[in-house]
Write a structure and sequence with these properties.
The complex is a heterodimer of chains A (123) and B (193).
Chain A: H1 8-24, E1 31-36, H2 39-44, H3 46-60, E2 65-70, E3 82-87, E4 90-94, H4 99-111, E5 120-122
Parallel strand pairs in A: 1-2
Antiparallel strand pairs in A: 1-3, 3-4, 4-5
Helix pairs in contact in A: 3-4
Chain B: H1 4-17, E1 22-30, E2 35-42, H2 49-56, H3 71-80, E3 85-91, E4 95-103, H4 115-125, E5 130-137, E6 140-145, H5 147-153, H6 161-192
Parallel strand pairs in B: 1-5
Antiparallel strand pairs in B: 1-2, 2-4, 3-4, 5-6
Helix pairs in contact in B: 1-4, 4-6
Classes of the chains: A alpha+beta (123), B alpha+beta (193).
Chain lengths: 123, 193
């Protein structure tokens, strides 16, 4: 394992290691996390929410999570809005996701598999 | 929004929505000229003149079929309140350029805020876009172009923990080093006077 990635060369090594791992383990269990980053979302703190998610991934060393941003999701009064997508049939939307709420969702839902009920807005 | 970096994120999101292939972001601080300028340029689908008018002044034009946000008008008002301006030029099929400028020392000017967090959000959150970020302060420049990083990574996602650490470190130290170099150069100049 590359200790700390500091250069482009380290990134290339990281890629080789990732390819090696993929040969052993299939690509199943990939989670997608989508954060609404429209004007209202940003004003409500969506950047800090996304930052908390990225920091959690880094701190816990979680591989195989895709984090994306999207424009306005259309749930203005619930911003910041975060969707956690395991697959088409397992998709939930959370509202009013503060950085603290985001860390709970990462721990309890993304890692633990249990949705965090108090922030659910649908699904 | 209480920091310019959040407004920058908001403007750049418009470029993502316009399906830009590349977005060039430049943040420029010039203490001698007392100006702070942010430029966001993209090669997205662009807008016609009527749309440009609506986006910058949503309450002036009459057409109401397309919804526009308040991000740009609010930033424009903030810049104008600080001896600055906001211009938006766009060509359909070619792209859009937003330039916003403030008097650097103006008492009402919002702080620049967390630039590294904004750029990291854009690069990781919209990896389909090629991001070029330049930060210039009093002649010192830091440039971050995500193309070499993506080429080195291949199909390894940017949200892998080690990659996130690399990106965060690169952006934070790049910005801090440009700032420190500018401060040192300014101090040398002041001492020589």
């Amino acid at each position: 394992m590359v200790d700390k990635v500091k250069t482009l060369e380290d990134l290339r090594k990281l890629r080789e290691e990732a390819l090696e791992k993929r040969r052993v383990k299939t690509a199943s269990g990939q989670v997608q996390i989508v954060v609404g980053m429209g004007t209202v979302g940003i004003a409500a703190g969506a950047r800090e929410t996304l930052k908390a998610i990225l920091e959690y991934i880094e701190k816990e060393n979680l591989s195989g999570i895709i984090v994306r941003q999207t424009g306005n999701i259309g749930l203005d009064s619930f911003e910041p809005v975060v969707q956690v997508i395991f697959d088409e049939n397992n998709k939930v939307t959370y509202g009013k996701v503060t950085p603290d709420a985001a860390r709970r969702i990462m721990k309890e839902h993304v890692q633990g598999g249990q949705p965090v009920k108090e922030y659910l807005i649908e699904g | 929004m209480r920091e310019l970096a959040l407004h920058l994120l908001d403007i750049a999101e418009n470029s993502v929505a316009a399906e830009a292939g590349t977005v060039w972001i430049t943040v420029e601080e010039d203490h001698a000229a007392d100006r702070l300028r942010i430029t966001v340029e993209d090669n997205g689908r662009g807008m016609d003149a009527e749309m440009v008018a609506r986006v910058t002044d949503p309450f002036v034009t009459s057409r109401t079929t397309r919804k526009v946000g308040l991000g740009i008008p609010l930033l424009k008002a903030a810049a104008e309140a600080c001896n600055g301006f906001l211009t938006l030029t766009s060509t359909p099929g070619k792209g859009t350029q937003v330039v916003v400028e403030f008097q650097h020392s103006h008492i009402d000017r919002m702080p620049l805020g967390n630039l590294a967090a904004t750029i990291l959000t854009l690069v990781v959150g919209s990896p389909q876009v090629h991001w070029v970020f330049r930060y210039r302060v009093d002649g010192q420049e830091y440039e971050f172009d995500d193309a070499p990083v993506k080429a080195a990574l291949g199909d390894v996602p940017l949200s892998e923990p080690a990659v996130l650490g690399y990106l965060r470190d690169a952006l934070e130290s790049g910005i801090a080093e440009a700032r420190a170099a500018a401060q040192a150069a300014n101090a040398r100049q002041a001492a020589a006077r």
